Queue: 4 jobs
Job 1
Amino acid sequence: PPRSTPKPSSAASDVYKRQNKSLTWKGKGLIGVVHLQPLPGSPRYGGSMREVCNAAVADAQAYEEGGAQGIMIENFGDLPFTRGVVAPETVAAMAVVAESIRATGVELPCGFNVLRNDVSSAMALAASCGGAFVRVNVHTGAEEAAQAIIQGEAYTTMRKRATLCPEVGIWADVLVKHAVPIGDLGIEETARDTFHRGLADALIVSGVSTGAATEVDDLRRVKEACPEAPLLVGSGARTTNAPELLEYADGLIVASSLKLDGILTNPVDVKRVEELRKVMG
C-alpha cells in the first residue's frame, strides 16, 4: 500500500505559525516608525501631550497614505534611555498616543518599541491597545551600549507573552544598532540563537546606528543561517538601496529616509513613503 505522507514536525509547524502571526502582508512589507516627541517625565518634554499626539497622528496618516503595511510607535525622544523598565508615565503616554492614532481612523497594524529594551512594557501596550507586534532590541545574549550592559530576557519575555498577549509577534534584533556584542558569537550563531532558542517570530538586522545603512552581506548571512525566519531591515533603507536589501529581507522598518528633506527630526513626508513603496515592487 502507498505510504502515508509524513506529518510536519512540531518544530516546523511552530515556525509556520510564527511566520504567519508575525508577517501578515503580501509581498515585501514597509513598516513606518512613528518617532514620538519627548514624553512626560523625560528631560525635553515640551509640556503638551496634545502636541505629541498631533505629530504622531500626522506621521501615522502619512505612512498609511503612502502605502505602508504597518507602523511602529517608539519613544524616540526620551533621551537618555534607561536599560531597564521605563517609568509608568512613559507607558501611559504611549498608550494615549496609540489610541489617538486609532481614533483618527488609521487602520494599519501597529507595533511598539519601548527604548531601550523594555519589552515587558511594549507587550503591555500591545495587549491594551490592540498591537500586532513588539520590537526587542536585545532578546538573547548581552550587548554593551550607552546604557551600559543590556542583557536579553528571552525566558521572561516568551513566558509573559504566552499569558498576556499570545498573538503578538516578537520581532528581535540580531546585533542591534548603537551597541556592540559581548563575546564573539558571530552574526550567524546569534541569529540562530535568537530564532530557534529565543523563539523570536522575526529577525531584524540593522546598521551601526539610526539611519545607517544595513549591510547586504549581514542580511545574506542571517538569511542563510535561518532561511525559515522572516527577516526585516532595521535601519538605513532608502529608495537607492531598497531593491538590493530586499533580495534577502522580507520587509523594511524605516523612518529617517522618509522624513521631510530626509532630516530625522522632521515630519514624515508622504511623497517619500510613496517613492519607497514603488521601488519595493
Job 2
Amino acid sequence: MAATGFKITYATMSADSDELQQGYRTGIALAKSWFGKDYPFYVNGEERRTGTLEEERSPIDDEILIGRFDQARAEDVDDAVAAARASARSWEQTPWKERVDILGRVADLISERVYELSAVVAYEVGKNQLEALGEVEEAADLIRYYCHQMDEHEGFSVALQQLSSNEKTRSVLRPYGVCGVISPFNYPIALSAGPAGGALVAGNTVVLKPSEHGFLIALKLYEIMRDAGVPRGAFHVLTGPGETAGHALANHSDVDGLTFTGSYDVGMQVFRSLSK
C-alpha cells in the first residue's frame, strides 16, 4: 500500500485528493534536491567512478539537469557479473521465505517513497503526475506478485507421487544464476524493479543496466534494495550507454538469463547473441 491512505493504480488516474497533491508537492521538493549532482554506479555494494561523466537533462525542460552520471565500461560489466556470480550460490541457498521477506520490504519501501520516486520519473522521462504515480506503484505490485507466487507455491518445491515406498521425488525450482536486466526509458522503474524483483526472489543475482534516460530512478531503486536488505553481491547497477555497457552485458558469457526491453532490431541482436 502506498504512503497515501488509498491505493494508487492506473485505474485511479482520474482520482484526485488534497492528500495526493500535498504528498506529490513534497515529493517534488525532495526529488529536486537530488538533481544536478554527480552520481557513481554500484558494483558489489561499492561506489564506482570512472571519471567519465555524462549529463542527463529533463525532457520537460532541458535547463533542468537531472545529474551527471559516471559511465560504466566493459571492464565494469565484467566486475559486476563476476561479483554477481560469486554471490549466486549464497543467495540461492538463502531460504526462499527469507528472500520473499526481503523483496516484500523492497516493495513496501517503493510504496512508502512513492511521491519522491514518482517526481523523479516525471522529471526524468516526462510522464505526467498520475502516470508517474501509477508506474511507481506498479513497480511495487510487480514485486509483490512474484513474492505471492513464491508463497502460493511454497517456494516451488513440490513432492511428487511415489511409485514405491522406496521412492521420494520432488519438483524443485532452481535459479539460473546471474540475470541481466536492460530496462527502457518509458517505464524506467516498473521494467527495472519488476524483472529484477522476479529474478531475485527466485534466487538469481541481478545486474541492471538502465536506460540513459532513467539513471537516477535506477540508483534510487538500488538504494531501496540496499535498505531492504538485499545482499550487496546480489544486485548491481551500471549507468552507461547501451552500445558499451549494455552490449557488454548482453554478450557476456557468464550471464545466464537476460530481460531486455527496447527496439525490435536490438532485441533480436540480443536474442541471437545470448542464445549462443
Job 3
Amino acid sequence: NSIPSPRKSDMQTRSFLKTLVAAGIGLALVGTAQAQQWKPTRPINLIVPWAAGGSTDQVTRVTAAEIEKVLGQKIVIVNQPGASGSIGSKNAWDAPRDGYTWTAGAAQDLGAYQSLGMLDVPIKDWHLFLNVANIQVVGVGAATPYQNVQQLLDAMKAKPGEVKVATAGVTSAGHNAMEAISRATGVKYRHVTYDGGNPAVVATVSGETDLTTQLAVEQAEMIRGKRIRPLATVSDQPLELEGFGTIEPITKALPGFKMPANYFGIFLPKGVPDEVVKTLEKIWAENIVKSEALKKYAANRGALFAPSAGAAAQTAVFPAVQANVWLLHAGGKTKVAPDTLGIAKP
C-alpha cells in the first residue's frame, strides 16, 4: 500500500507554524538587540549616599562622566549622606524601578545593611557595576608625634579609649579597618564619626582627631601636601601613591594581618528593566574596562583599577562583605546574625 500524501491543509498549517517559529526567533533576536540599546529619554539620578568630596563621590563622578558619553544623557549626582550610607541606598531601592535612579558606594557597606537592620535587602538583590578597589591607610595628623604604626599602637595601649580616630561611620571603610586593627592588637580607641570620608580626613588635618583610617583616595591630597602622615596601608601590600612614593603595609608591624579588597561601584536594584541592565553591562565590557579617565584617577588617588559586572562582581565583593559583617557582629553592632542571612563566617 502507498502512503497517502499530506492534505493541502496540513501542509499549509505546517508552513504557517514554521513561519510563526521563524518570526518568534526573529522577534527574540530583535528584542535582545533592543535590550542592549537602552536610550534614556531624561536625566538619570545617581544617589551618592555619602558627603561630597569623599571616595564614593570622587570615583562616581568620574564613572558617571564616562557613562554619559555612551548614553548621551545627563547623569545627575545627588549627595544624600546619613546612617552609614543606608539612607541614600534605601532611597534608590524605594524609587520607581524604571532605571532612572541608581546609587553608588562600597560593596562591603551595601552587603552589611541587612545585618545591621538598616535596609532589609541582601547584596544579591542588586546589580553591581564595579570600577575600583580601594585600600585604607592609617594616616595621622602632621602635628601628632607618631612616626610609625608601633608608636601609635603603644600610645593606644597606654591611653585606652583616648586616641581619637575619625571615620565615615559604622560600616565605613575606615571603621572596618580600625576595628580589624583593634581586634588584632587589643587596642581601644575613641571612634569619632562623620558624614563621609572627606570630612573625616579634614577633621584629622585640623587636629580635631588624631588619625583616620579612611581610604587612600580620600587622604591622597593631604598626604601629598604633608598635612597627613601615612603610617601604613591596612593591607599586606604596599601602595604606590603618585607624588608621594611608597606607603608600606601594616603587616610590617602586624605579621599575618589580612584585609580583603574594598570594591566600589554603581548599583541598581533588581527589578529595573532588563534593557537598562544589559546596556550597562555592555558599557562596562566595552568602555569602562578601557577608561583612561578611571585609570588615571586610580593611579593619582592610590586606588586599584578593577572594573567588573554581573556574577564576576558578586564573586569579587563577597570576601570583603563577609569579613565586614562578621567583624561588626563580633563587635555587637549587628541586629541580625550574618549566618542566618546566608553569610558564613570566614
Job 4
Amino acid sequence: MAKFAWLTDIHLDHLRSDEDLIMLGEEVRKSGVEGAFISGDISNGKQLVMHLAALERVVQKQIFFVLGNHDFYGSSTEVVRKSMHELSNMSEFLKYMPLNSYLPLSPNSAIVGHDGWYDAQLGDAMNSKYMLNDWVYIQDFVESSGGRQYVQMMGSLKDKKGIIGVAQKQAKAGVQHMMTGIKNAARYHKNIFVISHVPPFRETHVYRGEIGDDQAQPWYTNKMFGDMLLEASRVYPNVNFTVLCGHTHGKVDKQITKNLEVHVGHSEYGHPAISGLIEVP
C-alpha cells in the first residue's frame, strides 16, 4: 500500500522566508511517501511558478495538484493555467490535474482532479454580505462582472449576478472535466481519488467547528461538484471515491455514502503543513 502526502491551502506567498518552504518540502520528502497531492491555494498568480518549481526541487517526487482561487490573484485563470501547462510540460514531477483526464497511481487506483470553484448554489448568494478578494484581484471577475466595483461600492444585484455567472462558469467546467475523468478511470480502477479546491457539500464546509451559514455557503461550496459525486457513487457502486479539498481551512472527514468519503484539510496562513497521509491501494 503506497502512501501520499496531502497538502492544502499552503499559501507559500505568506511564508516568512525561503527556509520555511524548504522545511515543508523536506517534511514531505522525508515522510516516506510516494508523492504528494495538493488541493489548491498554493501561492498567487505572480509567484506560483516560482513556488511550485522550488517545492519540486526539494520534494523530488510526483506532485499531483490543482489550483485554488488565491492562485489566480494578480492574474487571470487563462494566463495562470497556461503557465501551469508550460511548467508541467517541462517538469519531471509536477502533474497539473486539469491537463489530464485521470492519472494512474497504482494498478487499482487513479486520481482525477480540477481546480473547481464555488458555485453560489447553496445558501443565499444574492443576500450574502460577503465580499471576496477574488472579485477584485482575479481578472476574470474584474472584466466580466464589475467585481471590483461591487466590492468598492457595495454594488448592485446586477453586479452580483455577474459575479455568480463567472463563478458558475468556472465551477461547471471543472465538474465536467472531473466527471469525464471518473468515467474513464472507473473502467480500469476500483479506487478513485478526486482532488479539487472547493468542498462539495453543505456539511463539508466547516469554519471554527461549525457548519457555514447561508451567508458563507455560496462562496465555500460547489453544489454541482457534490451532485456529480453522488451520481458517480450511485453509477459505480463498486468504486471507492475519496475526495480531497481545501478552501475553508476547516478540517472535515465525512462519509457521505457507502463508497464516497470527503476530506477537507485544516490550514493556517504562514504555517503550511501536511494535512494527512493518504493510503493508496
